[in-house]
Each structure stands twice: as C-alpha cells, then as structure tokens.
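Long-time lurker. I teach an intro course on protein structure, and each term I like to show students one example going from raw sequence to a predicted 3D structure in token notation. This year I'd like something fresh instead of my usual example. Would anyone be willing to generate the tokens for the chain below so I can use it in lecture? Attribution to the forum is fine with me.
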Amino acid sequence: MSALTGSTLCAAFTALLDPRSGPALRHRLLDIVTIAVLAVLCGADSWVDVALFGRSKEAWLRTFLDLPHGIPSHDTFGRVFAALDPAAFEACFVTWVRAAVAEAETDPDADAGLALDGKTLRRSHDRTRGRGPLHLVSAWATDHGLVLGQVAVADHANELEALPVVLDAVDLVGAVVTIDAIGCQRDVADQIIARGGDYVLALKDNQPTLRELVADHFALVATGGPDGLAHDIQTTRDKNHGRHEQRRCCVTDDPAVLAWLDPEQAWPGLRSVAAVTGDRRVGATTTTETRFYLSSLPADARRIATAVRRHWRIENQLHWTLDVAFREDECRIRMGHAAENFAVLRRIALNLLRQDQTVKAGLKAKRLTAGWDEAYLRHLLVG
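-- Reply from a regular --
Happy to contribute to a lecture. Here you go:
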C-alpha cells in the first residue's frame, strides 16, 4: 500500500497514466512518484539522489510499499519522468493543490491574491539538441504561500503564450490576479474577468501610449490638479535592515479620466488606474520609482497597494526559495520531459513544507528534519 493512500495527494495522482508498457512495468508508477516526492522533500536534487534515498530508506519504505522488485535505479527514475506527460502530471498537481487550498484557513476580509510570473531554470538547456533552458510560468497564491500551477513556455516562445494556459488551470473566482507588464493585454484582462476574477496589471512600455497618458494624469495629480477629480491615496512606511521605504498609492476611478484613457472601452472590466511611488533611502542615497497599473477593482488605494505589494512574494517566497533551498537553477536534469516534471516535484515538496506547522523552522531545516525523522517525513506526505 502506498504512503499516499488516504491522502489528497493519492487521490490526485492515482489517475496519472503510466507511459510504460510490457517489461518496463516492474515498478508501480505511484510507488515511483511516492519515492521521488519523499526524496525531494529530504533534499534530493537529481535522479541519482532519488535512487540513493530509496536504497538508504528501503527498509522503512517497505513498511508501506510492496516494492516487489526493490528500489528502481536512477536510470529508471530518469526514464519514467522523461516519458511522463508533463501536462497530465501538472493536471494531477493542480487537482491536489486545489484541495489543499480549499482546506486552508483564509481571512474573509482579505482578497485572495494570485500572482503570475515566469522563471528560467538556467542549467536545464541542452545545446547538443538545440534546446534552450526551461522557462516556467507559475501561479502563486500570495495569501496561502502555495504554488497553484505552472506551465512551461515552448522553445522560441514567450510568457504571453503561456499565461492563458495558466489562468485556465486555476480557479479565478474571487481572486485578484497580479501580473507584470507582459500580461498587460486586453485578452488577458478579458480572460480574468470572464473567469470571475479581478486584475491589477503592471503598465509599462509594451503599452507606450496608454502608459504615457496614465503617467501624464498622475503627474498632474502630483502638482495639485486637476480639480474636482476623485482620487484615493494611501501612504505606508517601512524600516528594515537600514532601509527606509515610503510607498504612496494613488488611484482613481473617475469616469472622466477613464473615458480619456480608454475612449473606446477596449479594456475589459477596467474600473481604475493607479500609480505607486516608492521612495527608498539607504544611508545617504535615496531612489524614487513610480509604477503604473490598470485594474478592474474600484478606486480603493489600500486594496490595490496590498495587491501590488503581495505580488512580489512570488519572487521572494517562490523563485528565490527554489533557487536557494532547492538549488533549482543548478539542476542539470534535461532529458525528455524530466526537467518539467522534476520542477513539479519541487513544487509539491515546497507546498507540503509550507503547509506544515509542526516544525517551526525554515525550509532548509525542515528538509533536514525530514531526512532525519521518518515519522515527520511520513507526516508531511499524508498529513
């Protein structure tokens, strides 16, 4: 019986189709996935590591896995995950994480934040086969700290082509979706609104005319005009590690402004525009940056400022963590679909570790504890 039995993870992955046939079916697919998830939880970064983990823990693994042919070799792990359909593996992951989010406690007064952003696995390239590094677009639940889904960007494509696929894979009802400038497109806004969500989209030079108009409007606001147009403003201040930061969010949903900016009402659901100005002082040096946003939210400076601030959690809590705690950028796995599927294993492990509240420590310490304490490792997997 698999360690996944009775868990939401088991329910999600039992539907996964096995790409093997004939004599290659010596090891059960769910057992292979179980061992791989456990190994990554304990610090494995390669198929050699996964197989070594299996051999080192074989006696313990046999307490809940039959393993009639022992532990698969590292070549077997590599071949199986290279052949495994990444879309099917990702679909199982999304099914599991939806159940995990549904069980998580939420603040009824807070927006459900959903940040989308891309990340390149820098050493996953294969020059001999003419393949560039794998680039993934991930959806990150900013309030839960969980990965909700990911989609690989095809070679010679860009993130914009993957965004609709990611948005289709996750539940957008009631979510406030934040995306950097590449997602500031009418089709993306339309998809979010149609799926029951709201958006806060960064407005940069890929929409040069609209950006210039929005910048001109808020430049007038900063000088004391125009008179009679409604604005909402929030200012926050932070002091940390010698840095002093002040962020000022100014937002308007004045019909006259919106009609001037979007006279043909081409932007689906557009209700407000915002400017977020950040002043950062480190020692004697002060820098100022202003960023502009389009949003389907009303002119509530607190809500929009919170959504903008939370968006950066995908960089700090996901991308940075994957590089530092999971060494994702150093991984050389590249055969077939293995790089994409190993990335899913990392995100399963990350979600399991972030959900756990029994060990009060960082992710690196939790992974070490999982390697040392078999009871804790099994707890991570089955809850």
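Some talking points for your students: The longest strand covers residues 272-282. The chain has a mean pLDDT of 89.
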